[in-house]
């Protein structure tokens, strides 16, 4: 038996993607005031176990824009079809992570090189975790300013998604395993940046000085030894299981391609083989790659790929299914389960919000310095790490036993110790070398073998999947008195959504719903809306936009767009376009008969109307010739007093276009119009109008109401930075 974790014969490591600790596990123990059953190491005498999780209304980020400031508290639970939040992949590069950690509502903070002294991150400066909302909102602010950005956000509502977090009910597998076994609330990614450098640290103990991915497609090679080289030297068998080739067509998986020093190509197996090997006998160390997911990317011409790695903006349900399948397979054979340790972690936070400041003092692995002058002496953002084994006491929250916090190099150090190799030992192939084989960060990394107890549990808790996703449809309702044209787009907004769909004319009172089909590509994309209303003429008034007739809808020049650009919509939104029927107002008047009198009908509606003016001689009961004509928006019909009409009485009626032949309650078809039966009279019978009187027909433009409105979570705040005394971690200043 080994001296370290002697009860364990098989370690299975699953490294997932791009979620911070708070984003997926922040509310794990909120139901017990963040007081778990067990801390390891034990808390000081007289103290209760604690969990560095979330508390409602205690944490917030702010954003300033054009002289206004908003403050948004962290949101418990995600909105709508919330398993895909945030629906744009947040920024995760080194410079953006600096901004997320050290920026504030109005000040962007960047790495030292190329920054002004006021904006540069200072050595040993504490991260206040106040820049996440500002950094994610760059896509919204810059787009409104006319600047091109990588990931444009169309609305403020979309920007707020970065402050949303998942609840245990939404992620019952991840949270269930964390609560049934052990989770660290003080485990940090190795580098404050994105995937490749962090995965390099987790396998090599270094990123060779790289602060970020070298290519947009995340394809690059790290030509240095890995933990697998050390395991080969010790005669320890291992396997890497993968879902797919990466990059496509390479004939290799991500790990094999990215780390070419790994030998033994026969040790790479498809993920299906893992489940067979669990039954037949696992090797000592198994490393599981997830299926990679990603969202929109114009440079790579990618629209969407659903993975099971939890990567935004894909559905996290697939990740839950993957973890449950791994856990269920491992615990199926009780005797084998007693010899197994499952480790679950995430490579990096992926730009999602966390409230704990990553510490300085990380040991640089080597002499490499990053392109922005980064010395690799600061950890990345906190990420979830869960230990699952029957040798672990339920409800354990574990932290480092030393002054050095956990990061991904703790995985290497613990596994090496478990197999009997000192993490400080040099590469035996390099005669005379004293440098640790997997370098200095691994040599100083704390290990977690003591989290396992000396007693094996007899229970094997079950975990359940989230409820099946019910895709709440995106609903559009026409509550105007006329047809509207509706267009739906999804995908990138540069310059317009990639794919567009048209409902044609949505008649008054009608509604339509989208996203009801189980179409993973469609439902994971961003949705955008454009709509137009009928005005009845081709005159383009100031501020108006003629509807060009998107897709295959052929329109004349009498339709006007409701807004200039595409309107971003949440997947579950309800859009109601409302407008009252035209209203009539008879102005003050008298009935004097002289040459100065004026009978006027004014059209102040948003559409063309049809005028009926009837006359009748007072002395002789003879009707005059009726006046019947269209009256366009802004036009006025005027009839002046004269000798020819002094002895006449007048009545008036007006009709408006509804676009269909359905007759609803309290409606009257205008039968005098020869064109069709799509016009409705304002009154059942004409009304009297005096010689010297004005009749004004009014109707406001259509109004668009989108619900729910995420602005309800905002609190008005003065446009000024947070005080210098602000508590770090993005806590509300109340």
Structure in words:
- By secondary structure, the protein is of the alpha/beta class.
- It folds into 3 domains: 415 residues, no CATH class; 98 residues, no CATH class; 118 residues, Sandwich (Immunoglobulin-like), CATH 2.60.40.
- It contains 15 helices and 32 strands.
- The protein has a 9-stranded mixed beta sheet with strand order 2-13-7-12-11-1-10-8-9, sandwiched between helices.
- A hairpin with an 8-residue loop joins strand 15 and strand 16.
- Helix 7 runs parallel beside helix 13.
- The longest helix is centred in the middle third of the chain and has 15 residues.
- The two termini are 56 Å apart.
- About 5% of the residues have low confidence.
Structural class: alpha/beta
Which strand-content bin applies to the residues? 15-25%
Poorly predicted regions are: 297-302, 492-499, 710-729
State the major sheet: 9 strands, mixed
> How many whole angstroms does the radius of gyration measure?
34 Å
Q: What is the residue-mean pLDDT, rounded to a whole number?
A: 86
Strand order of the largest sheet: 2-13-7-12-11-1-10-8-9
Q: What is the number of independent domains?
A: 3
- N-to-C span: 56 Å
Tally of individual helices: 15
Helical residues, percent: 10-25%
Strands, count: 32
Anisotropy-based shape: elongated
């Amino acid at each position: 038996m080994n001296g370290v974790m002697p009860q364990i014969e098989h370690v299975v490591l699953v490294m997932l993607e791009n979620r911070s600790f708070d984003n997926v596990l922040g509310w794990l123990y909120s139901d017990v005031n963040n007081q778990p059953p067990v801390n390891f190491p034990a808390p000081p005498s007289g103290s209760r176990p604690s969990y560095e999780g979330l508390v409602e209304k205690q944490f917030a980020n702010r954003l300033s824009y054009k002289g206004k400031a908003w403050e948004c508290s962290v949101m418990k639970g995600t909105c709508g079809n919330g398993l895909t939040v945030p629906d744009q992949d947040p920024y995760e590069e080194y410079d953006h992570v600096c901004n997320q950690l050290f920026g504030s509502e109005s000040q962007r903070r960047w790495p030292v090189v190329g920054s002004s002294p006021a904006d540069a991150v200072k050595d040993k400066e504490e991260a206040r975790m106040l820049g996440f909302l500002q950094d994610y909102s760059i896509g919204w602010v810059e787009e409104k300013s006319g600047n091109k950005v990588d990931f444009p956000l169309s609305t403020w509502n979309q920007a707020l998604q970065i402050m949303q977090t998942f609840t245990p009910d939404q992620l019952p597998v991840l949270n269930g395993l964390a609560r049934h076994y052990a989770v660290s609330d003080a485990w940090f990614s190795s580098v404050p940046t994105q995937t490749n450098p962090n995965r390099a640290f987790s396998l090599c103990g270094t990123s060779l000085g790289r602060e970020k991915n070298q290519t947009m497609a995340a394809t690059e090679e790290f030509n240095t030894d890995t933990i697998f080289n050390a395991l080969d030297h010790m005669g320890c068998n291992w396997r890497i299981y993968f879902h797919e080739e990466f990059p496509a067509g390479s004939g290799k998986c991500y790990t094999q391609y990215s780390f070419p020093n790994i030998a033994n190509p026969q040790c790479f197996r498809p993920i299906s083989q893992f489940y067979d090997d669990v039954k037949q006998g696992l090797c000592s160390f198994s490393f599981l790659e997830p299926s990679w997911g990603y969202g929109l990317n114009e440079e790579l011409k990618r629209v969407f790929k659903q993975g099971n790695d939890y990567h935004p903006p894909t559905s996290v349900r697939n990740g839950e299914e993957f973890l449950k399948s791994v856990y269920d397979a491992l615990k199926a054979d009780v005797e084998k389960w007693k010899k197994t340790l499952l480790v679950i972690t995430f490579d990096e936070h992926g730009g999602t919000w966390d409230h704990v400041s990553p510490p300085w003092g990380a040991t640089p692995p080597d002499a490499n310095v990053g392109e922005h002058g980064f010395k690799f002496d600061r950890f990345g953002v906190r990420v979830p790490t869960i230990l699952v084994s029957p040798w672990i006491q339920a409800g354990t929250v574990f932290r480092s036993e030393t002054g050095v916090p956990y990061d991904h190099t703790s995985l290497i150090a613990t596994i090496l110790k478990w197999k009997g190799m000192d993490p400080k030992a040099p590469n035996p192939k390099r005669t005379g070398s004293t440098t640790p084989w997997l370098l200095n960060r691994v040599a100083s990394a704390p290990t977690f073998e003591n989290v396992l107890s000396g007693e094996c549990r007899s229970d094997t808790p079950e975990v359940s999947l989230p409820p099946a996703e019910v895709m709440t449809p995106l609903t559009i309702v026409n509550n105007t008195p006329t047809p509207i044209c509706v267009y739906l787009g999804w995908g990138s907004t540069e310059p317009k959504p990639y794919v567009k769909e048209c409902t044609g004319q949505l008649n008054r009172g009608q509604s339509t719903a989208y996203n009801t089909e189980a179409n993973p590509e469609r439902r994971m994309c961003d949705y955008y809306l454009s709509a137009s209303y009928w005005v009845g003429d081709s005159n383009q008034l100031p501020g108006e936009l003629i509807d060009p007739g998107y897709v295959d809808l052929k329109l004349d020049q009498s339709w006007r767009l409701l807004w200039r650009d595409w309107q971003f919509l949440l997947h579950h939104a309800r859009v109601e376009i409302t407008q009252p029927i035209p209203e009539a107002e008879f102005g003050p008047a008298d009935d004097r008969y002289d040459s100065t009198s004026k009978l006027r009908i004014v059209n102040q509606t948003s559409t063309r109307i049809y005028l009926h003016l009837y006359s009748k001689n007072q002395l002789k009961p003879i009707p005059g010739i009726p006046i019947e004509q269209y009256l366009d928006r802004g036009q006025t019909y005027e009839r002046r007093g004269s000798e020819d009409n002094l002895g006449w009485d007048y009545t008036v009626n007006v009709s408006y276009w509804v676009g269909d032949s359905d007759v609803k309650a309290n409606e009257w078809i205008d039968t005098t119009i020869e064109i069709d039966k799509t016009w409705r009279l304002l009154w059942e019978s004409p009304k009297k109008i005096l010689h010297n009187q004005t009749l004004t027909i009014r109707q406001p433009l259509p109004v668009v109401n989108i619900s729910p409105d995420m602005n309800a979570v905002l609190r008005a705040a003065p446009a000024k930075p947070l005080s210098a005394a602000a508590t770090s971690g993005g806590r509300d200043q109340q």
